[in-house]
Amino acid sequence: MTPRDGVGGYHPAMVWSARRSLMLLSAALLATVLAGCARDEGVSEARGDDRPEGGLAPLSEAFEGVWAGVLPCADCEGIDVELELQREGGAAGRYRLVETYLGAADAVGFEVAGEWREDACRVGEIAGSCLVLLESGQRWFRHADGSLQAVDAEGRALDVEGARLQRR
Asked: pLDDT of the chain along its 168 residues, tens only?
């Protein structure tokens, strides 16, 4: 293989795949660290049937729903996201998250599944609830219109433009 075949003699598809894997690992690690820091800094979270002040009632114990949308991406045309939530009693439920990076010849999709819970949280001055994906550490603020917005552990929107997932 020659350097013109890719970066450092590696095939371009291998470089792209390794880069994307590293980006996802970094994002998951950052989300986990931020979630841990928020607990240490006193971000208020409540579990159970508590209704956040001025917020929505928690999702029912028997619940199914799918949210989808395209979120912005720094180095691609967008990230097609589908989040499926299920709960059959109890505080925690199961989720399946599928993210597909658009615009690349090898549009790669990633799937994560695991448990989620709903916690009281705030986004700026708005009280509400966040769906917390336990395996990935992702947090999704549930707006009054039913849409979900990705937020960090301190309640800041990850997308400054306010992109959201809509319920299907």
From this structure: 444 444 445 444 443 444 444 344 344 433 433 344 433 333 333 334 444 445 678 888 888 999 999 999 888 899 999 999 999 887 789 999 999 999 877 777 899 999 999 999 988 888 899 999 999 899 999 998 999 999 998 889 998 788 999 999
Contact assessment for residue 113 and residue 96, using Cβ atoms and an 8 Å cutoff: yes
- Domain 8-167 sits in CATH 3.30.1490.20: no
Domain ranges of the chain: 8-167
Tell me which H or E stretch contains 69.
strand 62-71
Q: Determine the distance from the C-alpha atom of residue 25 to the mean position of all C-alpha atoms in its chain, rounded to a whole number.
A: 13
What the block records as the tokens of 82 is 């589908």
The Cα–Cα gap between 81 and 108 comes to 12
Which H helix or E strand runs over 112?
strand 109-123
User: At residue 126, what is the residue type?
Assistant: I
132 vs 62: CA distance, rounded Å:
17
On whether the CB atoms of residues 101 and 16 are closer than 8 A, the answer is no
The closest of 75, 93, 74 to 83, measured between CA atoms, is: 93
Give this prediction's pTM.
0.67
